[in-house]
Amino acid sequence: TWKWVVGPMFLYLCERLVRFWRSQQKVVITKVVIHPFKTIELQMMKKGFKMEVGQYIFVKCPAVSKLEWHPFTLTSAPEEDYFSIHVRIVGDWTEGLFNACGCDKQEFQEAWKMPKIAVDGPFGTASEDVFSYETVMLVGAGIGVTPFASVLKSVWYKYCHDATNLKLKKIYFYWLCRDTHAFEWFADLLQSLEAQMQERNNADFLSYNIYLTGWDETQATHFVVHHEEEKDVITGLKQKTLYGRPNWENEFKTIAERHPGSRIGVFLCGPEGLADTLNKQSISNSEADPRGVHFIFNKENF
């Protein structure tokens, strides 16, 4: 028995030593941005740090807890000279980080007063393959929308730099959330992308649909009254917010008709129930003929 135990234990100890070594590398918080509804953005720099779109890191703040590591999806793009995470204040640890960064104070926080941060990673996810397809479906549910902030930023940087070499030609983005107020920072990103794409006369490059799943009669009435306005009253986007849940069968069939003979990447960051639905739709809407349309399903779960 001991021969079978020694090997895995040795590998585990090596992994812990690597994580300890990484945690001792210096991380500098260059900027802290306070977003609405108690969400903060930490922009950081670390020597030798390299990332890809959609990856995540483990973060430890010794000023809050000397032992706790928490995973956060990177919301910055590889083309940017920093890496960032968005932290929503929903518990004791995030509240402690919020206070340690001086976000609970009115006065400006000096850089040297920022808490020490340890970072382990980055670690890969399915979202890294998004540039392997000409057409992709991105589906984010709730907090699962964060990996696609990195993806959409990177797409825009690549598009501006050299659009002719970009294999990705069309993005269908779906965002399912109970309340968009919790992710206003992401709506701001979509507004920026929408405006920039229109300036370059390529507004069709990104098609997006925002679904509010937790709505009541008051919201529905408000929606009806303001439906004819140019911009959505909730998100400020030209695309109107939809209520309820998408009809995935219709969505897949429509996209299959628009892109015959294509390999379409389906990327999800959300719950298992939604993953099962999208996986079944990807299989049922893919053709047996190798020259036909094929949906390739990729997922990650929180």
TrEMBL record:
GO cellular component term of the entry, any: monoatomic ion channel complex
The keyword Protein transport is assigned to this record: no
Keywords assigned by UniProt, alphabetized: Cell membrane, Electron transport, FAD, Flavoprotein, Glycoprotein, Heme, Ion channel, Ion transport, Iron, Isopeptide bond, Membrane, Metal-binding, NADP, Oxidoreductase, Phosphoprotein, Transmembrane, Transmembrane helix, Transport, Ubl conjugation, Voltage-gated channel
Cofactor(s) recorded in Swiss-Prot or TrEMBL: FAD
Listed CDD domains: NOX_Duox_like_FAD_NADP
Location in or out of the cell: Cell membrane
InterPro entries noted in UniProt: Cyt_b245_heavy_chain, FAD-bd_8, FAD-bd_FR_type, Fe_red_NAD-bd_6, FNR_nucleotide-bd, RBOH/FRE, Riboflavin_synthase-like_b-brl
Main location: membrane
Topology term for the membrane: Multi-pass membrane protein
GO BP terms, alphabetized: defense response; monoatomic ion transmembrane transport; superoxide anion generation
Reaction catalysis annotation: NADPH + 2 O2 = 2 superoxide + NADP(+) + H(+)
Function as written in the Swiss-Prot or TrEMBL entry: Catalytic subunit of the phagocyte NADPH oxidase complex that mediates the transfer of electrons from cytosolic NADPH to O2 to produce the superoxide anion (O2(-)). In the activated complex, electrons are first transferred from NADPH to flavin adenine dinucleotide (FAD) and subsequently transferred via two heme molecules to molecular oxygen, producing superoxide through an outer-sphere reaction.
PANTHER family the record matches: CYTOCHROME B-245 HEAVY CHAIN, NADPH OXIDASE
Protein name listed in UniProt: NADPH oxidase 2
Species of the source: Onychorhynchus coronatus
